[in-house]
Design a protein that fits this description.
six-stranded antiparallel sheet, mainly beta, 37% strand, Immunoglobulin-like
Length: 748
């Protein structure tokens, strides 16, 4: 019965000129509808299976004709065990996976068991490979391989041998084949149709880049470099200061279980077209953007704040495995990273896919200057640094990567090592990424070549320009330091744990005629230089090198040297600041204003005692102290300067291992640390791992009182023989950069 007392429904009047409101909620993702017949193939995981049966004829009254009388496939042996020839010859035997891993441009072999002996005169079969959704022959995502020389595709095939009903088939993927995970099928042709093996993931295989194959774009004709830059799992990352270099070990873990799938997922997450994944230039550029999370939900979240409550401190990581697997499993960015973490994980990605790569460190690296060859430091009229108006900074060091590849997109001679950088600094084509930039182009000032050559050029070639700021705001150039930036570029030497100076790959010697020519050429491409020609000052300021342990008192000395035969008076300002390794000042802890009187050709040294209490409470995570001395020579009005970075040495972890060191025999590692300070360390994490011997493990300690000792014993079982390392870090808010390592030779 109707309710006559109910209120009538409201009448809504819509003006014909008012468009309807859009639906609430987020808009749908962009669709291919109306633009393309199918979505773009950009996921290796979303692969499609080929049909088991494909009839060429229509079904008759009794259905489709039977194929029982023709050759049938019983089994396919992929030869995927690590000790079998496929993986040994393809240098993939270290991969921890249940699948076959091979490299393109090189033959591998499989065994096919048929229902009867194969007769080449009448039997026709093919081995088919597909990758991604909608595999197509024209796009190289579907590759049939035939056993007879008269029928060949871009992938070559041959019958190596036959024994009874088992045929051994040799298959050579094209040297430019798409890199990723493929499905494999065996298809037999009959007059009525094609019969294939049923879809079976156990026949999947991975095809990687091949630096051993001359036709591959990543071919590297140096076996020592290949062993290091493709197969090397243990790395050394350099940091500290150019005159007091520190080292930290890293486990790249490119062969660890799940890491290869994680690397392929990174390209899927970037929605990189499957068809582009055989091009190392495009892969390196996409990965440069995807390793950071600034604009694409990439692998790592960067933070330089010192507050890492919601993640892992950058200084705590010991390797890439945890990071890559966490990203792959959680589908969300991992916290936190700084430049060496970005570079180390990027290195794992490149080596895992087979692209030769290495981590490099540039000491005194100019940043955020977008190709400008000047880093500006502002002084007041008396020569004291004006921190309010000084915006530029020089990083004590910066880590990036180099990868080796041909550059068919550039003129001949610009292939080889390429600089790539995943640390988010400046956008390139709209995304935070950098490279690949040819080192040859950087060294010779050819900055018009892609990608981002001008930016990397500036990182190693900028001048530090001191300006004197007048009261009316005008500025005058008073000093130019041309040799401060790009002081030294280091990487690990192949086959050893020694350092290798590769500065010569980026620049010619300072002051050489070649360097002047390069800088002049760089100006043609828009790099702005400071051309002021200032007379050389006859007074020099010198700050000596210091090696200081964290928590120690020390002496700071400033030496003034008069190179003239006349008296000189220097009104000096000496500032000591705690800085981040990025060069950003955190807090000033020392300020002195000596007036130094010098007789002709005399040197005078001023010395100050620096107690630990003056800097300890102001320290930030990497314990860097930056001293800058500036001064004005009263008689000549010239400005003199000196700068010095002191990286405080932190205590070390001690690692010992039991004597038994054989494959599949249990061993014990003992990590030992004593808190050398009087204060308590809180929320302490110790991490431990080793390539081929120990997956990442960690231990938590809530409190570690001053003077107390902690000992952690961890059992492990080596998985393969050879020389490797165990790497450990200790990390807490009050103490960063504590690490240790031990080398061990695992016997078969």
């Amino acid at each position: 019965m109707a309710d006559h007392d109910a209120a009538p429904p409201p009448v809504v009047v819509v003006s014909p000129d008012t468009p309807p409101a859009p639906p609430s909620g987020p808009p749908p993702k962009a669709s291919h509808r109306g633009r393309a017949p199918a979505p773009a193939a950009s996921s290796n995981e979303a692969a499609e299976d080929l049909p088991e049966l494909e009839y060429f004829v229509a079904a008759g009254p009794r259905g489709f004709p039977s194929l029982a009388e023709f050759l049938d496939i019983l089994e396919v042996d992929m030869g995927k065990q690590a000790d079998q020839s496929n993986r040994l010859q393809h240098h993939t035997d270290f991969f921890s996976t249940d699948y076959l891993v091979v490299r393109r441009g090189q033959e591998f072999q499989i065994k096919i068991s048929f229902s009867r002996p194969y007769d080449a005169s009448k039997d026709k079969f093919a081995v088919e490979f597909s990758i991604g959704p909608s595999p197509q022959f024209s796009k190289n995502t579907y590759a049939p391989v035939f056993p007879t020389p008269d029928r060949q595709s871009s992938w070559a095939g041959r019958v190596v041998g036959a024994a009874g009903s088992v045929v051994t088939m040799g298959i050579t993927p094209a040297a430019d084949a798409i890199v990723g995970r493929y499905h494999l099928y065996v298809a037999v042709a009959t007059p009525y149709g094609i019969r294939r093996t049923k879809p079976d993931d156990s026949r999947d295989l991975y095809i990687l880049y091949n630096p051993w194959a001359t036709a591959d774009a990543v071919f590297l004709d140096d076996e020592a470099e290949r062993q290091e830059c493709v197969l090397g799992e243990s790395g050394i990352i350099y940091h500290g200061s150019w005159d007091d270099v520190a080292e930290r070990d890293w486990n790249y873990g490119q062969f660890d279980f799940g890491v290869l799938d994680a690397c392929l997922y990174i390209m899927d997450r970037a929605e990189m077209p499957i068809t582009n994944r055989g091009n190392p230039v495009k892969v390196a550029r996409i990965a440069s953007a995807m390793l950071n999370s600034r604009d694409d939900d990439g692998v790592l979240v960067g933070s330089w704040s010192g507050d890492y409550v919601y993640g892992v401190a950058p200084t705590s990581w010991t390797g890439s495995t945890d990071i890559l697997l966490s990203y792959y499993r959680s589908r969300s960015s991992v916290r936190y990273a700084q430049c060496w973490v970005y570079a180390a994980v990027f290195n794992s990605f490149l080596r895992c896919l087979g692209i030769p790569s290495r981590v490099v460190t540039n000491f005194f690296s100019a940043h955020d200057n977008d190709g400008n060859l000047k880093t500006d430091i502002i002084l007041d009229e008396k020569g004291r640094i004006d921190r309010k108006n000084t915006r530029d900074s020089v990083w004590n060091y910066h880590c990036w990567n180099e990868c080796f590849m041909a550059r068919p997109d550039l003129p001949a001679g610009f292939g080889g090592w390429q600089a790539v950088d995943a640390t988010p600094q400046e956008t390139s084509d709209g995304l935070f990424r950098c490279g690949p930039a040819s080192l040859q182009a950087i060294k010779h000032g050819e900055l018009c070549f892609p990608f981002d050559s001008a930016f990397v050029f500036a990182e190693v070639n900028s001048d530090v320009v001191f300006y004197s700021r007048k009261r009316d705001g005008t500025m005058e150039v008073v000093k130019v330091k041309k040799d401060h930036v790009g002081r030294m570029v280091l990487t690990k030497a192949p086959g050893s744990y020694d350092r290798r100076d590769i500065t010569h790959l980026y620049k010619f010697p300072e002051g050489s005629s070649e360097e002047r020519t390069v800088l002049e050429k760089a100006e043609l491409y828009g790099c702005v230089r400071e051309k002021s020609e200032l007379p050389a000052a006859d007074v020099d300021l010198l700050l000596p090198s210091l090696e200081v342990a964290l928590g120690d008192d020390f002496q700071l000395s400033l030496e003034a040297v008069n190179g003239s035969g006349q008296c000189r008076t220097v009104e000096a300002y000496v500032s000591g600041s705690v800085v981040y390794y990025t060069g950003v000042t955190s807090a000033e802890f020392l300020f002195k204003t000596p007036i130094i009187k010098l007789e002709g050709n005399q040197s005078v040294k001023e010395v100050w005692q620096v107690p630990a209490r003056s800097y300890m409470r102001k320290l930030v995570e990497q314990a860097n102290l930056h001293f800058i001395a500036t001064g004005k020579v009263k008689e000549t009005g010239q400005i003199v300067t000196a700068m010095k970075v002191v990286a405080l040495h932190t205590p070390k972890l001690s690692i010992k291992v039991s004597e038994l060191n054989k494959v599949n025999e249990e061993m014990t590692a003992t990590v030992d640390f004593t808190n050398p300070f009087s204060f308590v360390l809180e929320n302490v994490y110790i991490r431990l791992e080793g390539p081929g011997v120990l997956s990442p493990v960690s231990k938590y300690y809530g409190l570690l009182p001053g003077g107390s000792r902690v000992t952690w014993m961890q059992s492990f079982t080596p998985r393969r023989p050879g020389t490797t390392r165990l790497i450990a870090t200790l990390d807490c808010a009050a103490l960063r950069q504590v690490y240790g390592q031990i080398q061990l030779d695992v016997l078969p």
